[in-house]
Amino acid sequence: MDWRWDFTFDVVLPKMWEAAGVTVWATLASFALALVGGLILMLLKTHRSKWVSRPATEVIEVIRATPLLVQIFFLFFLLPEIGITLPPLTTGILAIGLYNSALCAEVYRAGFQAVPKGQWEACIALNMSTYRTFKDVIIPQSLPPIVPALGNYLVAIFKETPLLSFVAVAEIMQVSKLIGAEYYRFTEAITIAGLFFLVMSLIAAFLIRIVENYVKRSILH
Amino acid sequence: MTHPMIQFDKVLKAYGALKVLEDLDFSVDKGEVVSIIGPSGSGKTTVLRVLMTLEPIQGGTMYVDGEPLNRMNVDGQLVDASKAHISRIRSKLGMVFQNFNLFPHMTALQNCIESPIYTQGKSKAEATDEAMRLLDMVGLADKAGHYPSQLSGGQQQRVAIARTLAMHPEVLLFDEPTSALDPEMVGEVLQVIRDLANSGNYTILLVTHQMGFAREVSDRVCFFDGGKMVEQGRPDDLFGNPQNQRLQQFLSKVLEAG
Q1: Contact predicate B241/B221, CB 8 Å
Q2: How many other CB atoms sit within 10 Å of the CB of residue B143?
């Protein structure tokens, strides 16, 4: 294999350094969106009124049953049609965030349902508000099953970001393709991109494990 | 005009076609200690659960201290109660569960101060003082910093009683409070309930299988069967001279089992 270190250091790494930042930003922003969006979708889906829960259930189904890439294209070409023009990166974050909201909604639902019914009843008997019931009783107890599952989605989202290269977002995959096209050399850039994902995924998995253990220790005694 | 502390007026509770409580008329006076006994499936626990608003009812009205609980008065008409109305009336009720239902991620003390602070708006210092006094009363002041998993069943139930009392309810609902306990722990919990009953400060509704205890602490005992109150009376009359045939059968079975 023909590997050139001078090319790697002088051309590839400087260009990809910036692109790595875009990838990380896209990951974190999408994840934040998925965390909040998932919670909202779950609350809508479990709402008492059928007029709320039914549409939410359908939306979740549609999002889960179509490929993320199709959704990215859909938002990218559809939003301008209805007069909303966003930068490609923002559109991409929106699409990935929305897609994972639907998946995270299930995680939240499973976590909340794992809290015994008696805990909800104790909150009613103590006349606690809905806000306090969730914040102080239900959410803390549902974290041990939820946190590791959400952590997996963080890593999954990270690995989904290369799809943004299809709408020309200058994330790490797009930039390595461009380097390859410009210099007719793909070896270094693609390898570096792969290594970047590998190392970052391992680091993320390690951090998630730490958070997971912390949550377990502080909530389950 | 005096009114009962608790009143059920033609209350219907049904799961589909199955009627768990049927046209129940039932009332408890202020300060009265009433035990509810009956076979499983008789609806006795349901009486407490619908009163605590853990489950909706399908008909009738429940009153607490003269005010409707599941309904409210708007321009002279009774309409379905709002959340705020239910919350206001419900604050007069406290419930102790068969399975304690303590919050496992909070210490005994935190369990007792959570709702006084956030629902009643007490300061942390004030709520803590009060909670420590109550934990001391149930004999667990030294366990205030323990988590439920570090306590025995009897201790957990006593913490649960302290947590309920911290909300200053006027009515205490005990739902088979000793059924989930090992036999050697039943006594310590019954002693706490006995003290509360004897204090005269509370109206008490107790669902129990402890016939001896029901006879000892109650002003009145009610026998439920098939979603209806079949017989009620003073403990000595009901246990000593049961009129209803099903009550006679029930008592003979329970007494046989010891």
Answers
A1: no
A2: 20
Contact (CB<8Å) A122/B103: yes
Q: What is the CATH number of the domain that holds B23?
A: 3.40.50.300
Residue A104 is encoded by which pair of tokens?
A: 């995270």
Measured in degrees and rounded to the nearest 5, phi and psi for residue B174 equal: -110, 115
Indicate the pTM of the whole model.
0.83
Domain count, chain A: 1
B118, A136: Cβ pair inside 8 Å? Answer: yes
Contact B30, B24 (CB under 8 A): no
Q: Residue A194 has which token pair?
A: 């792969």
Per residue in B102-113, pLDDT tens?
A: 999 999 999 999
Which residue does chain A place closest to B116, by CA atoms? A126
A119 CB within 8 Å of a chain B CB: yes
Q: Does B53 touch chain A (CB under 8 A)?
A: yes
Q: Model confidence over B53-111: pLDDT tens digits?
A: 999 999 999 999 999 999 998 888 889 999 999 999 999 999 999 999 999 999 999 99
Q: How far apart are CA A84 and CA A90, in angstroms?
A: 12
Contacts of A6 (CB under 8 A, 6+ apart): none
Q: What angle do CA A144, A148, A153 make, to 5 degrees?
A: 140
Closest CB to B115 among A126, A141, A221: A126
Cβ-defined contact of A121 to B97 (cutoff 8 Å): yes
Q: Exposed, middle or buried, B65 (CB in 10 Å: 0-12/13-18/19+)?
A: middle
Q: How many beta-carbon contacts under 8 Å exist across A and B? A: 63
Residue B178 structural domain: 1-92+173-258
Domain at A89, CATH number: 1.10.3720.10
Q: Is B110 on the interface with A (CB under 8 A)?
A: no
| Mutation for testing the A interface, residue in B53, B54, B205 having most A CBs under 10 Å | B54
8-state DSSP, B202: -
